[in-house]
Amino acid sequence: MRILGIDPGLRTIGLGLIEVSPKNACSAVEWLTIETPEKTPLAARLFELFEDLTAYLVEAKPDLVVVEQLFFSTNRRTALDVAHARGAILLAVSKAHIPLLEPNPLELKVGITGDGHADKRQMQDMMMRILQLQEIPKPDDAADALGLAVFGALTRKYQEVISHELRVTSNEKLIKKSTSVPRAS
Fold first, then answer.
1. Total domain count for the chain?
2. Taking the model in full, what pTM does it have?
3. Which CATH number is 121's domain given?
4. Catalytic-residue membership of 141
5. b/e for 10-25, b at 16 or more Cβ within 10 A?
6. Rounded to whole angstroms, how far apart are CA atoms 169 and 136?
7. Helix axes 140-180, 105-113, angle to 10 degrees
8. Rounded to an integer, what distance in angstroms lies between the CA atom of residue 62 and that of residue 85?
9. What is the pLDDT of residues 53-73, one digit of tens each?
10. Which of 135, 141, 160, 165 is catalytic?
């Protein structure tokens, strides 16, 4: 399974692609950024982002995309720009018919480190361990995107475990019900 993490932004969009083996081992395939020129009008930047991401989705063929939800920013202009970019990202993913996860920062931190108050360094250290990397990927936007992809892998694994437990529990109930029914002689 291939999982793409996307760290939304208007100037720089981080992309991190990982591969998850059948035994749930994660490995980094690549990490990169899409950049849009600052002096370009907003509509043109969003169009470029949409086009570049659409082309990358076709090339990378992810099975799942993980895009971080926005959190309130004290800089309203930056928050609005990121919200616009996030809209273009969600549109590209939706157009490609790829399943999407949208964790908020707290869910992301808890999912990767087990600590909702983890700092950036703790997140990077855990991501490096999971992906067996020797150093922190650069730039930061791409490293953050890899962290989102890892969250997708861990969430998927957790959902599979829960799904399996529910099936086992359901089957046990069915077996109990079927064994308690009197047999006709």
1. 1
2. 0.83
3. 3.30.420.10
4. yes
5. bbbbbbbbbebeeeee
6. 42
7. 70
8. 20
9. 999 999 999 999 999 988 766
10. 141
